[in-house]
Amino acid sequence: MTDPLRRFTTAVHPTCVSKLIWVNAPPGRCPKLAIKPMSDISFGINLEFVRHEDKPFEWAVQKAADLGYAYVEPMVHLGRELLSEAGYFHSVSMLDDPYRIKSACQSAGVKLSGLSAHTPLLKPEIGVEYLKQAVRFAAECGAPVVNTDEGPKQKWTSEEEDFTLMRYTLREAAKVAEPRGILIGLEPHQQYSRHPDGLDRIYQLVKSPSIGINFDTGNAYLCGHDPIVWLRRVVRRLVHLHAKDISVEQSSTQRGKVTGTPVGCACGDGVVDWAKVIKVCRQAKHDIVLSVECGTVDQAERSISYLKSLIA
After folding, report:
1. pLDDT digits (tens, 9 = 90+) for 253-301
2. 34 pLDDT higher than 70
3. How many Å is the Cα radius of gyration of the chain?
4. Sign of the CA dihedral 41, 310, 226, 256?
5. Considering the entire predicted model, what is its pTM?
6. Can you tell me the distance from the alpha carbon of 50 to that of 60, in angstroms, rounded to the nearest whole number?
7. DSSP SS3 for 33
């Protein structure tokens, strides 16, 4: 006789299998299987935290591991550039062997939460090949998510034209992502995604199981929104989260005036309610990595200490 649990799990996404539970049934009836409505939360870090350390990629990965992070989110780029080639910057060229990333993570004992592959969806002459290569690179190095946003628009295009261009870019990227099982995380970061309706409109351009949301708490706050309210709106589409806190000083001078910021302050030092963020993220369909985005090693150390205290 076929094991009912085995038969059921074959149709369930691998990240959901651990959440299968037996639900009590009335007397005389068989218990039923259900998916436990709670996702696991892990902590990672975007390697931007070493941008001012003038160190190579491998050093950044090891430093993240030493600080206690379980996941890292490397930044990748097309072509070649001087600082990375000289070992003074953490970004990795997608002309390199993807196993460079995989090997560094294995050596340090960390996993990949995704790749930071931000490219302008509004400029298909850049975005299409950039994202397609990032997806292929992610599949080979073992990163489940590729994160991006719409990028700054051209001055001469209309809004209608912009959404046509984004649809083209995302459709081409999704065609490459779907057979490889890679997710594309759309981030609130620019002129259209600075509000919930705009991000939803971008998300709805292409119907694909590979397209989801990479929510950025700091960008959402700086755009003038309550990040918790917005996170609740997208949580069932969430595939990755940028854990970016915003200092009181930055909040007072930039909120409502910018659409985002490269990095934030240490988590716990700013305005974001991280206990609520974690609570909402547990409602996601996927297990979620909170990828910290801060600007220094010291901030990274304080962030992991604070975040871990919330789930201890």
Report:
1. 999 999 999 899 999 999 999 999 999 999 999 999 999 999 999 999 9
2. no
3. 20
4. negative
5. 0.87
6. 6
7. strand
> Hey, which bits of 18-67 come out as E strands?
20-23, 32-35, 41-46
Pairwise CA distance, residues 69 & 285, whole Å: 23
* Every domain of the chain and the residues it spans: 4-33, 39-311
Residue pair 299/247 in contact by the 8 Å Cβ criterion: no
Buried b (16+ CB within 10 A) or exposed e, 276-289: ebbebbeebbbbbb
Interatomic CA distance for residues 249 and 86, integer angstroms: 35
Checking phi first, is residue 49 left (phi over 0); if not, alpha (psi -120 to 50) or beta?
A: alpha
Q: How many CB atoms lie within 10 A of CB 63?
A: 22
SS3 call for 157: coil
Residues forming a β-bridge with 147: 116, 185
SS (H, E, C) 242-299: EECECCHHHHHHHCCCCCCCCCEECCCCCCCCHHHHHHHHCCCCCCEEEEECECCHHH
Calpha distance 188→195 (Å, rounded): 8
CA separation for the pair 42, 19 (Å, rounded): 16
CATH T-level fold of 39-311: TIM Barrel (3.20.20)
The tokens for 247 are 């200092």
Neighbours of 25 (CB within 10 A): 10
Helices 57-67/297-311 angle, 10° precision = 40
C-alpha angle 158/159/161, rounded to 5°? 65
Q: What is the pLDDT of residues 41-98, one digit of tens each?
A: 999 999 999 999 999 999 999 999 999 999 999 999 999 999 999 999 999 999 999 9
Give which of 168, 267, 154, 269 is closest to 217, Cα–Cα. 267
